[in-house]
Amino acid sequence: MAEPLDIRWSRPLPEGVEPTTVTVSRDSAGRWFVAMLVEDTIAPAPATSAVVGLDAGITSLVTLSTGEKIANPRHERRDRARLAKAQRELSRKAKGSANREKARRKVARVHTRITDRRRDFLHKLTTRLVRENQTVVIEDLTVRNLLKNGKLARAISDAAWTDLRMMLEYKCAWYGRELVVIDRWFPSSKLCGNCGTVREKLPLNVRKWTCECGAVHARDVNAARNILAAGLAASACGDGVRPQRESSRTGRSSVKQETQRATAGLPRP
């Protein structure tokens, strides 16, 4: 081949730096990749006073403590019919035949299309969150346990909360940001951000609720704001956030009291 190959660069190489290692690979869809290992220094992002708490969900992929909701693109759901058709065609091909290999690659291309779109969306979202905020607070979700829910497992897998957290972790480290992860048992949805009362039960189908104090809460926005307050308290106290198993007689949880104390700059009891 005399002419150069048609190459699409994911990013430009740093000026004046020569690659130390070049790796050529091919994925299941038949695409070729060339990975170059170079030494590069990532400059920290300019400091900012903005902070944000994130509440992960399915309808809204993340809800910010500012009230903004990022819709879930549902990439797997959008291509589900195309994937099912490609898999049916694959099942009808004879094993070991050339037509079966073509059908297998077609299925693989649908899978890579879903994966690439999901990764691209998460990269854009996490880069924006890290650049705009000095501190990002998230929950320590146990995705492995959540996947045991048969009704929501497919939607949870498509949301890719684990990838979202992983990207936030290394991008915060790159750009000099702080990522605070609060305890998984923190009752972010059931905690009233106004008076500190914790509801005993709050089913998933309840998206808006009214506290005894009269405050009306949108479930996801209230959770994101409580996550932010708990994360800032944990960062100030230098400790994790873990609520009491039982609420006090007044209905106020120790988590809210710790949050208020840390926010006010008072020492812990």
UniProtKB/TrEMBL annotation:
<dbReference type="Pfam" id="PF01385">
    <property type="entry name" value="OrfB_IS605"/>
</dbReference>
<keyword id="KW-0815">Transposition</keyword>
<dbReference type="GO" id="GO:0003677">
    <property type="term" value="F:DNA binding"/>
</dbReference>
<protein>
    <recommendedName>
        <fullName>Transposase</fullName>
    </recommendedName>
</protein>
<feature type="region of interest" description="Disordered">
    <location>
        <begin position="238"/>
        <end position="269"/>
    </location>
</feature>
<dbReference type="GO" id="GO:0006310">
    <property type="term" value="P:DNA recombination"/>
</dbReference>
<comment type="similarity">
    <text>In the C-terminal section; belongs to the transposase 35 family.</text>
</comment>
<comment type="similarity">
    <text>In the N-terminal section; belongs to the transposase 2 family.</text>
</comment>
<feature type="region of interest" description="Disordered">
    <location>
        <begin position="88"/>
        <end position="107"/>
    </location>
</feature>
<feature type="domain" description="Cas12f1-like TNB">
    <location>
        <begin position="161"/>
        <end position="227"/>
    </location>
</feature>
<feature type="compositionally biased region" description="Polar residues">
    <location>
        <begin position="250"/>
        <end position="262"/>
    </location>
</feature>
<dbReference type="InterPro" id="IPR010095">
    <property type="entry name" value="Cas12f1-like_TNB"/>
</dbReference>
<feature type="domain" description="Probable transposase IS891/IS1136/IS1341">
    <location>
        <begin position="38"/>
        <end position="149"/>
    </location>
</feature>
<keyword id="KW-0238">DNA-binding</keyword>
<dbReference type="GO" id="GO:0032196">
    <property type="term" value="P:transposition"/>
</dbReference>
<dbReference type="InterPro" id="IPR001959">
    <property type="entry name" value="Transposase"/>
</dbReference>
<keyword id="KW-0233">DNA recombination</keyword>
<dbReference type="InterPro" id="IPR051399">
    <property type="entry name" value="RNA-guided_DNA_endo/Transpos"/>
</dbReference>
<dbReference type="Pfam" id="PF07282">
    <property type="entry name" value="Cas12f1-like_TNB"/>
</dbReference>
